[in-house]
Amino acid sequence: MTPKDASGPWRWSPWRVVVSFGFLSLFVDVVSDGGQSVAGPLLGQLGASALMIGIITGTGEAIAQGFRLVTGPWSDRSRRYWDFTLVGYILTVVCVPLMAVSPFIGAAGLLVATVLIFGDRFGKAVRSPAKTVLLADAAGAVGRGRGFAVHKSLDMSGSLLGPLLVAGVIALTGVLWPAYAVLAIPGTVAILLLLLIRRRVPNLRIYSHTSRAKKTDSMQADAAETDGTRARLPRTFYPFAITAFTTNVGLVTFGLISFHLTDTGLLSLPSVPLLYAGAMAVAAGAALASGYLFDRLGSNVLLPVPVLVAFIPGLTLSNRLAAVVVGTLIWGAVTGVQESTVKALVADLVPYARRGTAYGIFAAFEGAGALVGGILAGALYGQVPILIGVVAALQVLGLALLIITVRAQRRLDGRRVDAR
């Protein structure tokens, strides 16, 4: 039954909703990241080259991000945030376990695996803007930096547990396909949990009644009126979106990293998911730490990100295992910050009514960066010094635009305080 007010036995506290969404993401990421942790070796076994793996995994991330340009505004127009979230999760929990069949269908295996990878990534594109809007409603009542950080730390825990599960199955069986098949179990749990959250709290806008959420969202509304941006996204949004593009160009996909590790013999196949799990553990810690710092210090906490990204290609594609491990852990830290604190800043930059659209556009910039980065890293796999130079130059541009965004946001916050 849909509630008529913010009181009653059906209501969960905002922290309970945030944590529940966190566990939902945990189970889904066991599926998605468990599959991604060995996607490179799987594609390699099916006959893909380094360039093909870079293109496939880069295109997958581009789909995951870029199609949000459509699904974000669509979810805003329809207000069917729950439906988008459910469909997106179903796509992931179906496509990833089905990759277990790809080694058994001969020459078609590479094509089928590619389609299923794209299906999983499309599911992320469908659900992410809508789910983030729902989460932002609840997180606004507890502090969006903290809310997104706690959610992402649980989310990243799934990204840690999934590869560990996959590594264990591979160690026991010696082959890849059973590791994909077993991921159907946490996928089923995720769908059941989502249906429970929706039943208990069907209208998450009730959390806008809290004083903290009212303060944040009313400040955004005031800023929209002052700047004349009620019908469009604020000017501060776009330099930040371009920074997301440059950052993602430098983030070598783990599909290519894992292929590099097995192709060069730096790691055995069962050990590759363990490294991915380590990166996700770092990502969870980085998400939590940066989220809390964001609430205390503001957007300045994001300034080190382009500097860190500049080191990733040279380290992750090195022929020394220690360098690859360090580079992968840095990759994980940047991923954690991107998926938590970066989204919190997007929520603060734009009015509530435009958040779904904003997340969609922002993700399109990220997706374009992932596609360009995947192709670039795959094409320059044998010419890493050139790749390092290109990525470093882009990070200089990204850092300059991020500084512009941070300064503009600081001035805007000052005007909001003065207006009150």
Considering the chains and any ligands shown, give keywords for the structure.
420 residues; mainly alpha; Growth Hormone, Chain: A; 78% helix; 0% strand
Written description of the protein model:
The protein has 420 residues and is mainly alpha-helical. Helices cover 78% and strands 0% of the residues. The longest helix is centred in the last third of the chain and has 36 residues, at 384-419. The chain is globular and about 50 Å long. It starts with 13 loop residues before the first helix and ends with a helix.
* Separation, N- and C-terminal Cα atoms: 39 Å
CATH class: Mainly Alpha
What is the strand content? Answer: under 5%
Residue-averaged pLDDT:
83
Rg over CA atoms: 21 Å
How do the helices and strands follow one another from N- to C-terminus? HHHHHHHHHHHHHHHHHH
CATH superfamily: MFS general substrate transporter like domains
Q: What is the structural class? A: mainly alpha
